Give the backbone structure.
Amino acid sequence: MTGTETVLGAPVERREGREKVTGTARYAAEYDAPRAQAWPVPAAVARGRVTGVDPAPALALPGVLAVLTHENAPRLGDPDDPTLALLQSPHVPHRGWFVGLVVAETLEAARAGAAAVRVTYEAEDHDVTLTASHPQAYVPESANGGFPAVTEHGDPDGAFASSATRLDVEYRVPPLHNHPMEPHTSTARWDGDRLTVHSSSQGTSAVRAELARMFETPEDRITVLAEHVGGGFGSKGTPRPDVVLAAMAARETGRPVTVALPRRYLPAVVGHRAPTLHRLRLGADAGGRLTSLVHEVTTHTSRVKEFVEQAAVPARVMYATPALRTLHRVARLDVPTPSWMRAPGECPGMYALESAVDELAAELGMDPVELRIRNEPETEPDSGKPFSSRHLVECLREGARRFGWEGRDPRPGPRGTGPLLVGSGVAAATYPVLVSPCAASARALPDGGFLVRVNATDIGTGARTVCAQVAADALGVPLDRVRIEVADSDIGFAPMAGGSSGTASWGWAVHEACVRLTGRLAEHAGPLPDEGIAADADTSGTADAESPYARHAFGAHFAEVTVDTVTGEVRVTRLLGVFAAGRILNARTARSQFIGGMTMGLGMALTEDSTVDPAFGDFTESDLASYHVPAHADVATVEAHWVDEEDAHLNPMGSKGIGEIGIVGSAAAVGNAVHHATGIRFRELPLTPDRVLTGLLEHEHPAGMLGT
């Protein structure tokens, strides 16, 4: 890109792309060689306490340097996140909780040492099974994000009872796991009282603050770097055990230490999407307008920390109704602590809501696209605030046009050739606009270039590139004159890459710094000094100011599937999404984000599943051999489009977040398409062949339809 006219919105290539494809991009495990390696020891009971540790067999192995347990590990300050209080107590809150760490010269020696440590336990009774009627379930004070656990408007029960059409249904979403390509990894080094950490994290500011608190070290003595991060999907949004254990081991051994968590340990220690049990009651009049909407969710949390998936929140945004109730209940179980996973709350909540809306359309005999349009609200149903912009109807209309929805046979039930049934489905999508304060700086250099520094974290989204585009646009210079530095806690505070808020937050600060720099340059006469001219920005008080508008991105998903009546296998032959997300800042990276989210929703719909073993208390699907994420063969045609949307109530770029809306509603569109193909409504994910085939065999079909 050499001009400035189209620098924002242009399909600019990722700045770090060449480094990644040539293998020169360095990740957290690739610094400070030579270094020691550490391997954790997970608890082998579902609940209880450690009664004894024998490190001698491990210490006798060649290369083993140290064995840290609650008996000899350094005492740490109280963390903000209790899941990081590692090796501080003999208490075991769940299976897989780390009870030891072996440090060795090599990774192989550390792994062998961890296997050799002998730990004895006093086991206690445990409960890891979530049910909608669990006796310990309670209504929390709030759900994640500070949302009220309960909201109610009008008389939902009375309105439902008097509705012409009523729907009362339940859906189940299992535990899901993030599984980024790069497991959680940190390399730590102490130089006297100064700590440097390379961490696979979505935000270095939060990591530095937690390490300062736990190791009782001033923040200005800690540097956290995350130059390249191999994905996170929310699981790296807050500090995880790897960074605490690496810093602890490095201090104890006096050497740089890398802790790379084994993939099979991740489900127990880095968070997961909690299972959600949904009950929805929808009432409608004869014309298809909602008269009542009730969405109740039951989920689980751990005994270590309360985390309540806010899955009923989307129902407060989507559809006009005079009577609305949303409710969250949670049960404390002896399970690993759930945490953030791409589009927390919205993803499982919209699967249930959009599936129920599809069921209501079938009950009413209405087209599901038209039913959604008919219930479009004028203001946000829960708050009453006007929308800053809302183009869901345009997304539905444009998606239907591109998909060829008009030619669809609306009747659910078997159609197709031979053993393959064909169906199509639709679902809406929404995600809130989130933004946080951030600091940034911009410097004009004597050589005619510009240096922009912002502590953004690029987890594969193209953050470096888009922030540089924002800078070039604000400075009015060609993109190739802008150099950018990111992912260094010493740059200044910045929010994590999460909540679809990264670009909006970082970009706002970058824009402000560059605008201020432009003003300073306009006042300067003559050549620049050797150090250049700089300007700083801090968006505290502006980016986080209360808005009088309800700000959300919206979208629509369309899916086509085939269902094999012999094997029960579901194939998604086409996914199409149309989104309204403000100004798109980079067409190339935006399309990548939309398609990635849609594909992740496909996995949620068809292959991704996790269960908690009631006897042993652990996730039985703990690796990629048993937890199936989509492979290339599972993904056929995926199209992502967007409508032009101007919104003056967002940020200086006019952008909304796009990292998560792609997964919201994607699974529902697939499930609705399966119902259209088979006439059978499956209300539990994923739609695996065994589940689908059982449903087909139990359902009455014309003779010969099921094959042999």
